[in-house]
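Researcher: Re-running this chain for the archive, since the previous output was lost when a drive failed. Same request as before.
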Amino acid sequence: MADNITRFVLLFEGRTGSTFIMNALNSHPSIISEGEILVRKSAQEQNDIMRALYGRSEAGIKAIGFKTKLRDIADTENFLTLLDEFDVKVIFMYRKNLIKLALSRLNAKRLFEHTGRWNQIKGENPLPPFAPSIEEFEQALEFRRQKEEELKEFMERITRPLMVRYYEDLLEERDVLFNNIFSYINVPPADLQSNVVKNTDDDMRNILLNYDQIKEHYKGTEYEEMF
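Model: Regenerated structure tokens:
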């Protein structure tokens, strides 16, 4: 487009740090960063929403974007067309450790059942440890593995500029991650704030009462090293 605003979209599957990232980016004075605005919308509604968002032009704003899961896109062909039309830059968020990803999914479901929210807010007490069954854990792991593969396949269809980042980057080098994003979407660095905090302890022993049982179940598999 003719203006100097960068349009971007963050594609992700749940529990990869997307809420924290988008919430933090929205505290930047030069960024409009929306959440999952396509959820439960028809293809036409999604088309109208994306056009309205990417068509915005406000004083001082240098980047506009939102985030979405692949499964929430009603018409992938039109989505890809809009990315081209609005010269959208794409950010993909993945998580390398699928065992921790499955655990985070199970724990997030507990949080949702308890609070109606999928993410923990700053100042809120974390849920106590729990002991999911082997079957529950296997189902969560298979669901996440499948969704991650579908997202990677979709990425191959995108002809737009791509930035691939990992949840682990957010934990280990947060400032580097955000500086990379600033450069990618052409905004100056700034101090960011987010009221979203990590919901699941990174040490699985602190959240899984049956940690040893689940670890033993995956002994000798590709997932063993993820414990």
